[in-house]
């Protein structure tokens, strides 16, 4: 008999918010015959916490295993309360470490994270970057990759790249959108791409006004367009009209956006922070530069545009490694953990 699962993560409207891996895993397990409950659909952190407490207790006879998604920042307290309550209720606990900033947070104060992780029966991570980081604290973690539904993506590699770029994260210090603006300025001034275009997609988490100010000050209003949050349909549109995906992150774990852009056929130029080098390989499946190196990123982009076939080669290499992120392969790992290990 399959175990009944409760997944504790963010389950907001896909049309208005970025779909989470918790949503994808819930859908995957349901489609494979598991009975799955999910929380929470509350955006407000306090309401989300109260919802979790209420749901965990009231529905305690409806699930056997609690799967908790662990992030850094204030969300850690929501996860902590959930794990402690699951333990009190004598439930099996799986904690999935998702926040790319967790290793840095743990170096400052590991206490709350260790209490959660030591309560888990199984710890999973979507990249070897996090697995290696947790070894420092004596934590053994299982690698279970992120999942993407390949049916949503049309692979369309480009032979000759045009100077049209796509950036897709939140306007937050974690994702360093200012670097993207500097990259465009460098490409326009040093490499004479006067008609270069960058589409920047994502919600504002505090830096949108600063980015708009930089765009105005640098004379890039004709080159950079902020398009806001994009749902799956609009994401596919911007991937189709763009030829290169750029990532300027300061922190990351296992970015699903990389898998998506590879599935669309776009070559990637990115910073080499956190788990990114564990997802893609420099000069094989992406081109990587050091954190905040806008000059180096502009150089790599120019190379792709000026070298016929270079982007297509990166894209083809990336496509070859996507199978391990498919629904079938990822389900095998979750199913093995749920049937054999817990």
Explain what the structure shows.
With 342 residues, the chain is α/β, with parallel strands linked by helices. The protein folds into two domains: 5-147 and 326-341, 3-Layer(aba) Sandwich (Rossmann fold), CATH 3.40.50; 151-323, Rossmann fold, CATH 3.40.50.2000. It contains 14 helices and twelve strands. The protein has helices spanning 21-31, 45-58, 75-88, 102-108, 111-119, 128-135, 177-190, 208-217, 232-241, 256-264, 276-279, 294-306, 310-320, 327-341, and strands at residues 5-8, 36-39, 65-70, 92-97, 122-125, 142-143, 164-168, 197-201, 224-228, 244-247, 268-271, 287-289. The strands form two sheets. It has a six-stranded parallel β-sheet, sandwiched between helices. Strands 9-8-7-10-11-12 form a six-stranded parallel β-sheet, sandwiched between helices. Helix 2 (45-58) runs parallel beside helix 3 (75-88), helix 3 runs parallel beside helix 5 and helix 7 (177-190) crosses helix 12 (294-306). The two termini are 13 Å apart.
């Amino acid at each position: 008999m399959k175990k009944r699962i409760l997944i504790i993560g963010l389950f907001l409207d896909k049309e208005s918010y970025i779909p989470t891996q918790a949503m994808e895993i819930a859908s995957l397990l349901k489609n494979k015959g598991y009975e799955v409950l999910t929380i929470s659909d509350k955006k407000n952190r306090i309401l989300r916490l109260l919802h979790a407490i209420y749901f965990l207790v009231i529905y305690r006879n409806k699930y056997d295993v609690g799967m908790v998604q662990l992030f850094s920042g204030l969300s850690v307290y929501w996860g902590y309360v959930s794990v402690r309550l699951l333990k009190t209720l004598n439930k099996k606990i799986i904690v999935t470490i998702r926040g790319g900033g967790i290793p840095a947070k743990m170096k400052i104060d590991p206490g709350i994270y260790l209490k959660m992780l030591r309560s888990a029966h199984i710890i999973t991570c979507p990249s070897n970057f996090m697995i290696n980081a947790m070894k420092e604290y004596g934590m053994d973690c299982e690698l279970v990759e992120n999942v993407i539904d390949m049916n949503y993506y049309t692979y369309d590699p480009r032979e000759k790249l045009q100077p049209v770029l796509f950036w897709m994260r939140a306007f937050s210090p974690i994702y360093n959108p200012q670097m993207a603006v500097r990259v465009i300025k460098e490409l326009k001034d040093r490499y004479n791409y006067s008609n270069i275009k960058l589409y920047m997609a994502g919600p504002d988490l505090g830096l949108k006004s600063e980015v708009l100010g930089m765009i105005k000050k640098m004379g890039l209003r004709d080159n950079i367009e902020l398009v806001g949050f994009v749902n799956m349909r609009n994401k596919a549109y911007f991937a189709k009209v763009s030829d290169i995906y750029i990532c300027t992150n300061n922190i990351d774990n296992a970015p699903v956006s990389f898998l998506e852009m590879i599935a669309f056929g776009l070559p990637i130029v990115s910073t080499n922070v956190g788990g990114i080098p564990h997802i893609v390989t420099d000069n094989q499946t992406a081109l990587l530069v050091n954190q905040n190196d806008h000059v180096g990123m502009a150089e790599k982009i120019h190379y792709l545009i000026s070298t016929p076939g270079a982007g297509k080669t990166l894209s083809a290499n990336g496509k070859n490694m996507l199978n391990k992120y498919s629904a079938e392969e990822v389900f095998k790992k979750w199913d093995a953990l749920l049937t054999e290990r817990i």
